[in-house]
Design a protein that fits this description.
The radius of gyration is 15 Å and the shape is globular. 73% of the residues lie in helices and 4% in strands. Strands 1-2 form a two-stranded antiparallel sheet. The mean pLDDT is 94. By secondary structure, it is mostly helical.
């Protein structure tokens, strides 16, 4: 129902040229992850989590593009990934985790919530794993831990 709602509201749209956007999306995800790691090193955990979330967002965006869709909503991006990749347990599991990170990022950015070291370590690891999954699926690159 949620996916249908996103389609009806135009927050997810079909686009046969969406796949052309995949390389840029992966490059953007890589840049945000690199930035997240740099800000982590100087203990700017809130900024690191926002950057890590942006990496996750762009990794999943690449997966959405792969199915010939565009998004106009963070919520609908995750809703669409859950629907379009529902047969892939690894993506579904990571998407559920990423959706919780989406809410955390919102609370950091708009509510001034602080992040502890344990949380940012988890978010950075998750962002790295999701980028690895996206690269494997979209670019045929095998990610190594």
């Amino acid at each position: 129902m949620k996916f249908k709602y996103c389609l009806e509201k135009g927050l997810i749209k079909r686009d046969n040229k969406a796949k052309e956007r995949i390389p840029n999306s992966i490059e953007t995800a890589e840049r945000f992850l690199k930035s997240a790691n740099k800000t982590y090193k100087i203990q700017e955990y809130e900024l690191a989590e926002i950057s890590a979330y942006n990496s996750i967002f762009h990794s999943f965006r690449g997966l959405l593009f792969n199915k010939n869709y565009l998004e106009r909503s963070h919520f609908c991006l995750f809703t669409a990934i859950k629907e379009l990749y529902k047969d892939d347990k690894e993506i579904a599991d990571k998407c559920n985790i990423a959706d919780r990170i989406r809410l955390s990022r919102h609370n950091i950015q708009y509510g001034g919530i602080l992040v502890n070291k344990e949380e940012i370590n988890f978010v950075l690891k998750t962002a790295e794993e999701i980028l690895g999954i996206a690269k494997r699926i979209l670019l045929g690159i095998v990610w190594k831990k």
